[in-house]
Amino acid sequence: MRAGWHFLVMVFVALGSAAQTQEIIPLTQIGGLHAAYVVPTDTYHRVDVQLIVLSGAYDDPNPSGTAHLTEHLAAFSADATVLRQARERDIHATTYNVSTVYTNSGPPTELEKLLRLSRAVLDPPNLPDGFADSEIDIVHRETLLGERTSPRRWLHRAVLQNLYGTLRGRAGNPVEDLPNLNLEAAHKFHSEHYVPSNVTLIVSGKIDADTVAELVSQTFGDTQPSAVPPKPWLDHKPKPDLRSVETIESSALPRDTLVYAKFVDFADQQTSIDMQGTFFIAVDILNARLQKALYFGDLRFLSNNIDWYFAKNADLELTIDVQLMPGFSLAAAHANLVKTMATLLNEPITAEEIQESRKKAIVNARAAARNPRSFLLFLKNVAADGFPPVTPTVLEDMLNETSDQKVRDFIHTTMRPSATAVVLAKKVD
Amino acid sequence: MRKIATHLAAALAVCLSLLPASQASADLIATNKDTRLVYLVPLRNGLSAITLVWDINQPDQRRITHLKAALSSTAFGGTETRSAPEIYDYLRLKGISQTVATNGNKLLLTVTAPNEVFPETLVHLENTLLEPNYTEAWYARELEGSRLNLSSKTRRPNDLLNEVAFFLDFPTAPHDLGAFQNSIRFGRPEQVILRSGDAEVERRARKLVEKLPSAPVTLGTTFERWTSFFGGEDQTTFSLPKGIIHFTDPNASETLILLVKAAKFENAEAVVGANLLVDYIGANQGSEMFRILRQDMRAAYAPRSDYVPMGKNRAIISVSATVAANRWPEIYQKMRDIYTSTRTGNVNSGELSTQHNRIVQDFGNYFFNRPVWGVRQLLFEYPNGASDEISLPVFTALEQASVDAVIEKADTFLPAIDEFLLVLVGGGPKPSATQKSEGYCALPPNTPLSHCLRALSTAQN
Fold first, then answer.
1. What pLDDT was estimated at residue A42?
2. What pTM value is reported for the model?
3. Residue of chain A whose alpha carbon sits nearest to that of B283
4. Which member of B284, B300, B395 has the closest CB to residue A90?
């Protein structure tokens, strides 16, 4: 029996097919922008413009949350400047740790408007009287909502505050600083960080590269090079012998939870851009071994999340959070995790293991190309550090060119004893 | 550069699962009839998908949770020839994803993979179903992971709506059946829905079905034991009580306000009309709730409405916002006003037209790129399987919808706000005596929402 083969085909004709090779074309007539690129693809009938401000929450002054407030003000100001027909579009702006990304999407015919919307983000925020002030209240609401709905958010913050010994930079203190949020700091942040030389533009989608080049030149050609704001947090590193352990209690937790953080200083490296292939293969091997020990080897670990952050200066940060099955004590879980980390490289890393992780990383990259949102995040990833964007197919080349020895060296450096912090979070009623 | 490397909780997540159909035996979840094979239009993102559908017969929440663990254990817990970590590695190497979900009274196992590896994916699926070999400890962990989040703790509207949907799908109070067997096997399903354009895949899918065991006609002990509890209870009421469910947290500075209604519609036109109007009220940044509650009143970060399809001509309708605790009575009244204003036809036709275009585009994207979403739409219309050309009236009605007609009939498409249940989670003033007059239930700490849903329903019946 075969039914419905042609179902809906005529209704939704403007949809994509399988992923294809993605070329990255740098643009030259871009005024003072740090960089601009076009990535033509035929996969989806749309165009996406990502304006990436190369500053985010890690660049917060005092108070924490200033970058976030600035994102709100710039997004609404830009929208009001260029548009706005109600219900026409949603504003997509996100403050990440090292960048703030404004994404404007639409059909290819709207590219010129999408670029103007992006350009307006760089103008000083101009909002109606009272609106900007009250946007601070909205940031309050958003921050508190996030704290309640995502315990991981504050658990990770707590462990990073202990790891780095600070309430600024890579740690942050956004909840306690809420009462101090102010427009003056936000406008100052905008004037220092939302400057052309601190901005990368990526245009991707079903578009002609020459057309994009011309429109980008028209829209951004008048911008001037500017001073780039410093990133003092890149020099802030924990003491290598730090072994912090903190115990807390909370009624907001679904289960007892352990959070672990480790800092690795690749002291002989100045930049992470040449290590991307190595990074992806190496962390896949480490993840596989961690999963084998924690998730598959001890069924008292209910779930785990492993997160690696590789900074532009080649600082590496590992965070692991695990929820525990009822009856499994935090102390026993902690002991198990410490032992796992200490013995993770007892078995030598084989060529077969490296090759398998290389294949998995390639499969992951190809999967990202199948989903528009994943594809945008992929492009944004290293571009947020000021590097050229990497597409899934470019990463595939990087992975294939990475030598086994580089992977082994990376892993052995990562697993050497270094600064760690642990939070043991007990669920209470 | 950030690599969110591993999210096992999400990767191995399952949604809901259930008791087998009336053909169940002690350990085998399977039909004793022919499996219906349905070929749905292929996906457009380079992926193929297969969904196996087992029918449920009057499950309750406890058994559902247990069977969720059983199916998840079957999918991920290892086979006679592959250990659990070997399966995990295999899935990652091939780019395969496995998802367990429910759709009303049906259990779904969906396997998705790139076209080029899909034939071998079916071989793996066959081994998974024929040779499951998971441990008791693995099963216990899946059981723990299968429990719904308590919305009174997370205070996420999604979690609250999940609890409501769970109650509506499976309203029967849990029965004590003693220890649940972890030796359940999943055999021949009622339906197989295939999304692939490959003849070899179709051949292997048929072969897979033929190899799966069917249930014996004689009922086994498990089913007989469970059926004895049902006693003709009506599982298809699909209604929520009115009144207030209140979880009080005196230390909270915020309160989640959620109004929710289980709505039934006469036809696909009404379904589409209600969906459009609900989205107009609060689905995105151009909505009434965003415009009024966030931009004008500065009261909430993410006020929203939700339209959750639950079956043919059935849906959960909800509006919600998290606000400063001391302002909840004022915002609650404004939410009621916004809803009622839309229901009485105070709608901008141009803006509703924009909303219409968005939904059409979303439906298309979801249908061709999200296999589970597409299967749900199919099962709403063809719960027992399609036997001829497939026609989904909701899609046709969506394409043909007239914005002016939707506005004109708004009061017939949307139920009155007084028919909604109010859920409050957080701090602030207590509800007034008037507000509590339709019914009131104080939710104890660490208690599922179903406790109050059941209590209010019982009182009102």
1. 83
2. 0.89
3. A87
4. B284
